[in-house]
Amino acid sequence: MKPPVEIRFDCHTSEAMMNSVLSKAKKEHLEILNEHKVCNIYKRGQVVFHEGSHPFGVYCVSSGKVKLSHLGDDGKEQIIRLLKEGDITGYRALLGGDRYGASAIVLEDTHICFIPKEIFIDVLKNDAGLAFEMMKLLSYELHRAELQLTHLAQKPVRERLAETLLFIKDTYGFEQDGITLNVRFSREEIANLVGTATESTIRLLSEFKKDGMVELDGKKIKILMQRELERTANLQD
Amino acid sequence: MKPPVEIRFDCHTSEAMMNSVLSKAKKEHLEILNEHKVCNIYKRGQVVFHEGSHPFGVYCVSSGKVKLSHLGDDGKEQIIRLLKEGDITGYRALLGGDRYGASAIVLEDTHICFIPKEIFIDVLKNDAGLAFEMMKLLSYELHRAELQLTHLAQKPVRERLAETLLFIKDTYGFEQDGITLNVRFSREEIANLVGTATESTIRLLSEFKKDGMVELDGKKIKILMQRELERTANLQD
DNA sequence: ATTGCTCTATGATAAAAGTCATAACAGTAC
DNA sequence: GTACTGTTATGACTTTTATCATAGAGCAAT
Q1: Residues of chain A with pLDDT under 70
Q2: CA Rg, chain B, in Å?
Q3: A194, closest nucleotide (Cα–C1')
Q4: C-alpha B48: how far from its chain's center?
């Protein structure tokens, strides 16, 4: 694991923050947040915060990609959320008065701004609009988690893998070619997103390839037949 | 299914509301909520709200037991939360500006107060303390959902069933005898809580009985060896 | 008491998914 | 280049879990 060297950068004009929930704060509050934020660059594999540790603030992803993963009782990783620019994280533990329930691990070089707890809470106390946005965000995440819960309980691995590929596409989109998923996951990471064994993921991806739905080139995954993948995912909701 | 006849009752002095998050509202706001709430009695099987419909307010369970269940893509029930007195529900959809993601179905005769959307939102806008409590509640539920997600993905049915029995115990407690779970679930409902087939649940419960961990008497379940159940659940967190 | 109904229980079997072993391959260090 | 290492791929096999079938138990209505 690389040492967590964090290089500061100036993200004062960060567009990401303007697109995040934080932008819903009143102008004067947004200025306070901007004044107190500390921005850093993280390299692939670096850990932004560790599961089990205490939150000292919230993080806003300015650019890049981050996974939130939780270790199961036997040490197996479960990826519970994916973050991209404009997403904030660390708020669940902070607002719940809890420790981090997952670690935030950077998937590629990523710029992240940190806002200290006291500043964030103080702004939140005086900004009902922002508080509502936070509740909305939490509500959305809870909804997503409950949907996924049902899928994990009821859907076979094949459907969940198709669904996961579509989810990755919805989150990170495609590269310029319009078909290659714009992120590199190992097979193991995909398995930890789906909630299955790595070998099962590899096998099913091979099947998807044989069926012409995807094309595989190392960690590059191309979606050839999205409609067919959607049917394989068998989504109703 | 019984017709949804709702009989009003007076829950003005409802202790449940005093124990719920709503009690964290400022005194004057609590009075407003109390003035505008409408209380009803629901009988076993009645539906408080339906998955897919639009929220018109929040519900506070004054006494009784309620399950929140979500229908999977192929119509199978997944029970995602259990409510008891003092719990509120309906806030997820309301705050998220969303439809209900699950139906609330009453497990036994239950008193529930309804607070209209406008009243609730209005109070919430002017009560930062209550807003924080709501965020705390949402954070807690999100945390629980993410933990369960990991367990569903990684733990075998046997462990999840043991965990579910302990969860039921933590939620509804025991009867006077100190060992009988204070709620009646069908085997199918337990299966829908665990996320497995009804037959698997029946089989494993029989095993637990053979191992002396539980005693079964129709829908009555007695926990004979809680320590052993905890070991079977294999919980680390 | 008899009928019909739902729920619980159990066996037989099939399907799904996980595990283990090993090979092929790619990327990196030397 | 060669060795080393980690990832991907595949086959063989086992375990887990679901499904199907059927029987019995409990309960309500007649």
Answers
A1: 1-18, 237
A2: 19
A3: C17
A4: 13
pLDDT for A8 equals 42
CA A161/CA A201 separation, integer angstroms = 7
B6-41 pLDDT, tens per residue? 434 445 445 666 679 999 999 999 999 999 999 999
Q: Classify the phi-psi angles of A57: left when phi > 0, otherwise alpha if psi is within -120 to 50, otherwise beta.
A: left
> In chain B, which ranges are E strands?
7-8, 38-42, 47-49, 57-63, 66-71, 77-83, 88-89, 103-106, 110-116, 214-217, 220-223
Structure tokens at A94: 């902070």
Determine contact, residues B203/B186, Cβ cutoff 8 Å.
no
| C-alpha atoms less than 13 angstroms from C-alpha of B175 in its C-beta half-sphere | 10
| Most A CBs within 10 Å, among B70, B130, B135, to test the A interface | B135
In the chain, the amino acid numbered B213 is M
| pLDDT one-digit tens code per residue, B52-103 | 999 999 999 999 999 999 999 889 999 999 999 999 999 999 999 999 999 9
Within 8 A of A76 by CB-CB distance, chain B residues are: 154
**Quick one: CA dihedral A102, A103, A107, A113, positive or negative?**
positive
Instruction: State the smallest CA–CA distance between residue A9 and chain B in angstroms.
Output: 31
- In which element (H, E) is residue A166 found? helix A157-172
Residue A96: its chain B contacts at CB < 8 A? 135-136, 139-140, 142-143
3-state secondary structure of A58: strand
Q: Which residues of B touch A133 (CB under 8 A)?
A: none
Long-range Cβ pairs for the range A2-5 (8 Å, 24+): A2/A43, A2/A45, A2/A46, A4/A42, A4/A46, A4/A47
Residue B138 CA distance to nucleotide D13 C1' (Å): 45
CA–CA distance, A183 with A225 (Å, rounded to integer): 18
